[in-house]
């Protein structure tokens, strides 16, 4: 039987398969996990609902999970981030476009919000009346659907939509209302099935800790983002690569000599600032945290409030995970033809709704995911990916090698949680949010060092004793910050 799917065009599968094949070569972590765990099939019985950008690299992750025994259904966690050829190749698998035999994927570049939430519902709903029993999330949307859905089912209704709701939240509520009409217990049943979630990104992890603190988390979670080999690599070096890839593909403007503002100097901001400086831009950083602000200053960047410098910038990038970081008023103060882009997880870093309400503003599509917004005085700014994360909307996200680190952590976390979910509750029986142990983090790094022909120095027994560590690691205490 052909697999269930909704993608742009299965005819793109061959091109996707070539790209996946090349990506496999650059993803040594995932490939060695296939070798290590392939025979043991630790994910046999797992029904994984994956909500993560459907890119070529994600295709290698999906096929790794399948190689370890899992059944998988996949959607993207962003309406613009799917690479249609990768989605097609995953669906076709070992079959043909006429008879696809791969993995069910529900994702295409340029979904509407309604389609986005429908796809998210599809991954949690298994054929034959079954549901997913694991979530692999990026940003927490699939997890939110199960939590809010169950809450609202228990209350017997979805709260009414108000003027304060974003467009997206209104669409989300409409989806839950529909599912409650079809089955008033659907999300309660899904919640009971889910053994746990592994979460990819900073923003999703924030949501999980908030749920756990409020005592509302329904199942245990592994925070993949805060594996050192994830956030200190993907967020930083990944964005260092893909920020300017997105800028170049979208606008091809020369970055050298320009003034660029990076809002937020966390892991993502550090990578963005470095890549803009590498291209010869003069970079200004904005921060709310004195520690990160001081780091930016010591790294040689000017640190300023956005309102003091927004009129000087040729490029403004947000990377905060916060909301309303650039207001509609500030957008009107930007230079004529300045570029405004967000690389943080959600589009609310830029006040796009406020911009649309500015009197007399008009929007012109230059090409998909590149729009010129012209104000009444004739000046305009260029906004990438409608304010959604631009490295995936305007380019193809991070390159394979760095994603191999992130996704090796994801794979190990899925194996860990699926096999030992009972161990991830506290003594009061409450589900926890935890990071992977350090020896696994070190293992992920080691797998990638080999591929770079890097030589790692080995401690002697005496040196290890002197440092108070084991010769085989872990080499750092938990509080070490890298
Ligand atoms: P982080 O927490 O390390 O850094 C965010 C920084 O922004 C913090 O230092 C914080 O103090 C600062 N900040 C918060 N509000 C601010 C404001 N109003 N003005 C100026 N600075 C402010 O988080 P990280 O890991 O850098 O992630 C940032 C965002 O990027 C998150 O939404 C995350 O999910 C997303 N992300 C996106 C990726 C991509 O490929 N596009 C990859 C990895 C993460």
TrEMBL record:
Q: What terms describe the molecular function in GO for this protein?
A: adenosylhomocysteinase activity
Q: What is this protein called?
A: Adenosylhomocysteinase
Protein family membership: Belongs to the adenosylhomocysteinase family.
User: What taxonomic ancestry is recorded?
Assistant: Bacteria, Bacillati, Actinomycetota, Actinomycetes, Micrococcales
HAMAP family in the record:
AdoHcyase
Q: How is the cofactor bound, in the record's words? A: Binds 1 NAD(+) per subunit.
Task: Name a single GO cellular component.
Answer: cytosol
* Enzyme Commission number(s): 3.13.2.1
Q: From which source organism is this entry? A: Phycicoccus flavus
| Pfam hit, one | AdoHcyase
Q: Which cofactor does it need?
A: NAD(+)
Instruction: Please tell me whether the keyword Transmembrane is annotated for this protein.
Output: no
Catalytic activity of the protein: S-adenosyl-L-homocysteine + H2O = L-homocysteine + adenosine
Superkingdom in the source lineage:
Bacteria
Function description: May play a key role in the regulation of the intracellular concentration of adenosylhomocysteine.
Domain S-adenosyl-L-homocysteine hydrolase NAD binding: from-to ranges: 235-397
Binding-site residues, substrate: 55, 138, 200, 230, 234
- Which pathway does the UniProt entry assign to this protein? Amino-acid biosynthesis; L-homocysteine biosynthesis; L-homocysteine from S-adenosyl-L-homocysteine: step 1/1
What residues bind NAD(+), as annotated?
Answer: 201-203, 235, 264-271, 287, 343-345, 391, 398
Q: What are the recorded Gene Ontology BP terms? A: L-homocysteine biosynthetic process; one-carbon metabolic process; S-adenosylmethionine cycle
Q: Enumerate the PANTHER family for this protein.
A: ADENOSYLHOMOCYSTEINASE (PTHR23420)
Which keywords accompany this UniProt record? Cytoplasm, Hydrolase, NAD, One-carbon metabolism
Which InterPro entries does the record cross-reference, listed alphabetically?
A: Adenosylhomocyst_ase-like_sf, Adenosylhomocysteinase-like, Ado_hCys_hydrolase_NAD-bd, NAD(P)-bd_dom_sf, S-Ado-L-homoCys_hydrolase_CS
Q: Where in the cell is it found?
A: Cytoplasm
């Amino acid at each position: 039987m052909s697999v269930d799917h909704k993608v742009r065009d299965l005819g793109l599968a061959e091109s996707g398969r070539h790209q996946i094949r090349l990506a496999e070569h650059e993803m040594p972590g995932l490939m060695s996990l296939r070798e290590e765990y392939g025979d043991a099939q630790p994910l046999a019985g797992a029904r994984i609902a994956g909500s993560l950008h459907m890119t070529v690299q994600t295709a290698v992750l999906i096929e790794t999970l399948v190689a370890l025994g899992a059944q998988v259904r996949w959607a993207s966690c962003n309406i613009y981030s799917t690479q249609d050829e990768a989605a097609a190749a995953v669906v076709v698998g070992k079959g043909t476009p006429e008879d696809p035999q791969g993995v069910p994927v529900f994702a295409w570049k340029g979904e509407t919000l309604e389609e986005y939430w429908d796809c998210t519902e599809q991954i949690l709903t298994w054929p034959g009346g079954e549901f997913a029993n694991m979530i692999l999330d990026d940003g927490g949307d699939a997890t939110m659907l199960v939590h809010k859905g169950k809450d609202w089912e228990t209350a017997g209704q979805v709260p009414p939509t108000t003027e304060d709701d974003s467009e997206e939240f209104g669409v989300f509520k409409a989806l839950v209302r529909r599912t409650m009409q079809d089955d008033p217990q659907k999300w309660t049943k899904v919640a009971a099935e889910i053994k746990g979630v592994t979460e990819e990104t900073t923003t999703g992890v924030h949501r999980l800790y908030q749920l756990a603190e409020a005592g509302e988390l329904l199942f245990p979670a592994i925070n993949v983002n805060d594996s050192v080999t994830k956030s200190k690599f993907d967020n930083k070096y990944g964005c260092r690569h893909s920020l300017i890839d997105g800028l170049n593909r979208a606008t091809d403007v020369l970055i050298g000599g320009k003034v660029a503002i990076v809002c937020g100097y966390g892991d993502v901001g550090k990578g963005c600032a470095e890549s803009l400086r590498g291209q010869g831009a003069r970079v200004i950083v904005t921060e709310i945290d004195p520690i990160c602000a001081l780091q930016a200053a010591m790294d040689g960047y000017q640190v300023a409030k956005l309102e003091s410098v927004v009129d000087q910038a040729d490029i403004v990038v947000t990377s905060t995970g916060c909301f309303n970081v650039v207001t509609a008023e500030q957008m009107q103060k930007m230079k004529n033809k300045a570029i405004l882009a967000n690389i943080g997880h959600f589009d609310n870093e830029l006040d796009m709704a406020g911009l649309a309400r500015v009197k007399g503003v008009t929007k012109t599509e230059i090409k998909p995911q590149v729009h010129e917004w012209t104000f009444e005085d004739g000046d305009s700014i260029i906004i990438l990916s409608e304010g959604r994360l631009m490295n995936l909307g305007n380019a193809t996200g991070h390159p394979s090698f760095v994603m191999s680190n992130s996704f090796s952590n994801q794979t190990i976390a899925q194996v860990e949680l699926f096999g030992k979910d009972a161990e991830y509750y506290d003594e009061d029986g409450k589900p926890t949010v935890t990071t992977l142990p350090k020896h696994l983090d070190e293992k992920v790094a080691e797998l990638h060092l080999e591929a770079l022909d890097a030589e790692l120095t080995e401690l002697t027994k005496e040196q290890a004793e002197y440092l108070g560590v084991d010769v085989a690691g872990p080499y750092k205490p938990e509080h070490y910050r890298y």
